[in-house]
Every structure is written in C-alpha cells, then in structure tokens.
Write a structure and sequence with these properties.
Order of helices and strands: HHHH
Structural class: mainly alpha
Radius of gyration: 20 Å
Number of strands: 0
Oligomer: single chain
Helix content: over 70%
Largest sheet: none
C-alpha cells in the first residue's frame, strides 16, 4: 500500500506543478489555452512517466545521481511518447525545449516536495519514539 501511495502522491504533485506551469505559459501566450481534454492528456503524460519510474525504481542503483538520471529519462520518455501518441504537441525544437524544461523543473520540484515530506515524517516518528522512551522511563522510575 505504501508503494502505491508513494507513486500516487508523486503523480498528483507532478500533475499539479505541470498544470500550474502550463497555465503560466498559456497566460503569456507561449502555450495554447488549457482545455479540459488537454488537462486529461497532461494527467495521462504525468501518469505514464510515474509508471515508468515505478518500474525502474525496482532496480537498486549504486548511485543517487544515476537513479536521478534514469528517473529523468523515464519522465522524458513517458511525456514525449504519450504526448506524441495523443497528439498533444508536434515535436519541433521549440516544443522539445519547452517540454523538456518543464519536465526537468517538475521532476526536481516533486523531488524537493517529497524530500520535505520524508523529513517531516521522520521527525514525527522520532518525536513518537522519544515520547515512548520518556513514558517507559517514567514507568520504570529511570531518569534521562
């Protein structure tokens, strides 16, 4: 269950960032307006990238940087293949630069959000452990 939660959370966070960035780019006429069908297509691209990452994350990489590089390849493949199959964009140099830039930015934004979430979770666990140790010490008469 935690496995599914991790990737569902990642997918939702990345989709949120994609829609926000796309909306900003659309508001300055760099991208066409965001339509309902395009919103669903963006979600499909985000989900395809997340599914690819879920598969390649099963490999035990020896380096964090290698893992990040593989994740970025997963994101780019998921987005470009899905986007081209659904005819979301035409592959030209400008679209390549914009979409790749968005993918890289979104990847690191999601990475940062999930790191912060992990730190908060670890802090809560440590607080609970400390509380349990203090209560155990009170029951046994020990002092810390």
């Amino acid at each position: 269950m935690l496995y599914i939660k991790k990737y569902l959370t990642s997918d939702c966070i990345s989709y949120t960032f994609v829609v926000l960035i796309y909306s900003i780019l659309a508001s300055v006429d760099i991208m066409p307006p965001l339509t309902t069908i395009l919103a669903f297509q963006l979600f499909a691209m985000s989900t395809a990238a997340t599914v690819l990452m879920a598969f390649t994350d099963q490999i035990a990489w020896k380096s964090r940087w290698l893992s990040i590089a593989v994740d970025l390849i997963d994101v780019l493949l998921g987005v470009f293949v899905t986007g081209m199959l659904m005819q979301v964009f035409i592959l030209n140099l400008l679209n390549l630069a914009i979409v790749a830039g968005m993918c890289i930015f979104v990847y690191f934004a999601v990475y940062g959000v999930l790191m912060i979430k992990d730190q908060v979770d670890a802090s809560r666990i440590n607080q609970q452990l400390q509380w349990l140790q203090q209560n155990k010490a009170k029951r046994t008469g020990e002092k810390r």
